[in-house]
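FAQ
Q: What does a multi-component entry look like?
A: The components come first, one per line:
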Amino acid sequence: MKKTNIIIGIVIFAVLVTVPFWSAILSPANGAAPEVSFDTPVINQLSGDNYKCVEDVEWMRAHHMDLLNDWKVQVVRDGNRVYISEDGTEYLASLQNTCFECHSNYEDFCLKCHTYSNVNPTCWECHVEPTVVGGAK
Amino acid sequence: MEMNRRKFLKLGTAAVAGLGAAAAVANPAVAAAVNGSYKEAPGKRSNVTWGMVIDMNQMDEATLSKCIEVCHKYHNVPNIDTKKDEVKWIWPETFEHLFLDEVHEKMGEKYKGKTFMTICNHCEEPVCVRVCPTKATFKNAQGVVGMDMHRCIGCRNCMAACPYGARSFNFKNPRDYLDEINPTYPTRMKGVVEKCNFCSERLAVGELPLCVEAAGGAIVFGDINDPNSAVSKKIAENFTLQRRTNLGTKPKVYYIV
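Then the predicted structure of the entire assembly, as tokens:
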């Protein structure tokens, strides 16, 4: 077999294998990071020192799932319902009763980032997101 | 360049190791640990073993219906009519079904077919906990047999093991059978088992179970290890029955008949 044929074959193979990467880079829709909304009644009430999440915002962005996982174990199995954050503030460890209090905009907050990063957390199969409250189904 | 098998493997290993090191330098691990701490909510009692006495002289059918309603409404328990698919945390059962060893031919009319309140017995030696392959069902420090729904894989071993039929399987999506969802408590999903949790979410913040509040004195709830508690006194002063004590599960629900 000719050497050039082999090289052409390798190039075609490399392009096909990396389709997910370069299609994501080239596609304009996938390029921009989503803008999550903080425009909810409760967050708009917060000001000054009170304008904060349970932990540092950057940390929450990267690790909210670790925090929720930890809460889940502490609350369900050990009955420790109160979380004391690094700055000493106490929170009721509850997705539905604490997180959703502020982040009552499921579609413009949780869903936006989850769609962007193509993750499908199963939280909502059981935990009631604010949008379905009142009316089932 | 002359390439033999040995050289190729050496070069390949070095390349992979180099790439790995480069990736580690480019993406330094961000601290994932949760640094906050936890504590119990004020009012929670830890050094206790919860138990319950149901006084059937006071528990009429109207009270029982009220107990079921408040419990099922709060905990988002779906209302499914068919026997196979139904989900229940508290349910009515006849005396004969509940205490099958106590039934005899000449039994008083007063007891025949009488409706009793039935819930999970929160056994001291729970069989369901022993058979659960994922430890989704567990007994907590206060003796309450609870479920970690996040871990339930729906194998239904616990349902086969429970001698009291206290467990229900979600054959259908429960949200389709809820008229109204309580936003403060999760629902379940299709494919998990559920049962009464002794209102552990309320006990954790120092409140009594909903059925105890709704029953208005027909249910006494408290620490069965404290001889001075109302529930211990009630057990000591009255003749009480438990379901199928011969099995050794040591239920923590007592009945005054």
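Q: Is there any commentary attached?
A: Sometimes. For this entry: Chain B touches chain A through 40 residues (CB under 8 Å).
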